[in-house]
Amino acid sequence: MNILVTGGAGFIGSQIADAYIGNGHDVIIIDNMSTGVKEYINPKAEFYEMDICDDKIKEVFSKHKIELINHHAAQIDLRRSVEDPKFDINVNIAGSVNLLQNAITSGVKKFIFASTGGAMYGEHDYFPADENHPTRPYAPYGINKMCVEKYLYYYNHVYGLDYIVLRYANVYGPRQNPHGECGVIAIFTDKILKEVEPLINGDGKQTRDYVFVSDVVNANVLAIEAKGPATYNVATTRETDVNYIFDRINHYAGMNFSEKHGPAKLGEQVRSVLSFEKISTELGWSPQTDIETGLKLTTEYFKNNKR
Ligand SMILES: NC(=O)c1ccc[n+]([C@@H]2O[C@H](COP(=O)([O-])OP(=O)(O)OC[C@H]3O[C@@H](n4cnc5c(N)ncnc54)[C@H](O)[C@@H]3O)[C@@H](O)[C@H]2O)c1
To answer: Which residues in the chain are classed under CATH 3.90.25.10?
Structure first.
């Protein structure tokens, strides 16, 4: 199958492209290299350095008979979305709609969308949050992901475009960018290995649901054949706090830093943990990598791949 992977030079998208190519698909990548890494681009993919907001993406659709779009290109920085909501709207909504318009005019059959569970539900009314939990995003990033989900509903309803929405919990693992504002595991691992003491925001008891990148890739493999339209959380239903992450990375890195706490981030969500029951029942997906193994693998990766 001809599959367009947007963001295919990034942390998650590049590993999805690798898996699709490994499964015999022809992969076309669009990435503007804003956070992408050249070495992550699979050499067997057709690569276009382009912005998803640009009209030029039409050329990619006319050159290749794309059957499926896997959309991972995005502005992923929550704080940047707060500081510059218009930029986030431009990339995350207008860029997505640009792809959707091209999908319709060129006969694409299906769209897989990387959405967010972690930034979609807000403080939970119940634990774990399932896909029916009220959506209360705390930042433009989550609002804009939610908006694209609505666009998908519209494109399905009006044009019959099939889609799968994958709402990720907090994804971590090899290739995650340690120099950004998000991804506490990558940031801590990078710092600890460079012998720089990381600062824990607040008391460090804030929890998240951390899902390992290879499990996220598997969900994207299953999503190709899944019958849409459908929306799934991709999560582990295990709550982990920041102090635990700090402790384990310290241990796997062979370092001996003690916890150092800074002021809490204003408005930071306290707890987040998501149900994966729906994707487990309907697609047979479940997380294969527990947090201990994932942290160990991530630390090993960062040890051997300095950035
Ligand atoms: N990492 C997580 O925990 C997480 C959680 C929920 C959802 N997601 C979603 O998964 C997707 C991938 O995230 P990631 O963590 O791999 O981030 P990433 O920054 O590594 O990947 C994003 C890729 O998109 C590219 N890109 C950005 N803007 C672009 C544009 N305008 N045109 C073309 N390419 C552009 C970047 O260069 C990069 O290669 C994003 O849609 C993100 O919102 C990630």
So the answer is: 173-208+238-272+289-304
The Cα angle at residue 262 between residues 256 and 264, in degrees rounded to 5: 130
The pick from 4, 18, 29, 35 for probing ligand 1's pocket by mutation, whose C-beta has the most ligand atoms within 8 angstroms, reads 35
How many angstroms is it from 12 CA to the middle of ligand 1? 7
Structure confidence by residue, pLDDT tens digits, 229-253: 999 999 999 999 999 999 999 999 9
**Pocket of ligand 1 contains residue 34 by CB under 6 Å:** yes
Fold of 2-171+211-234: Rossmann fold (3.40.50)
Summarize pLDDT for 67-81 with one digit per residue, the tens.
Answer: 999 999 999 999 999
CB 129 within 8 A of CB 274: yes
Residue 72 beta carbon below 6 angstroms from any ligand 1 atom: yes
Active-site annotation holds for 244: no
Reply yes or no on domain 173-208+238-272+289-304 having CATH 3.80.10.10. no
Q: Which two tokens stand for residue 235?
A: 């999560």
Q: Among 5-9, 163-167, 263-267, 299-303, which is the least confidently predicted range?
A: 263-267
- pTM of the entire structure? 0.98
Reference 115, options 131, 100, 128, 127; nearest CA is 131
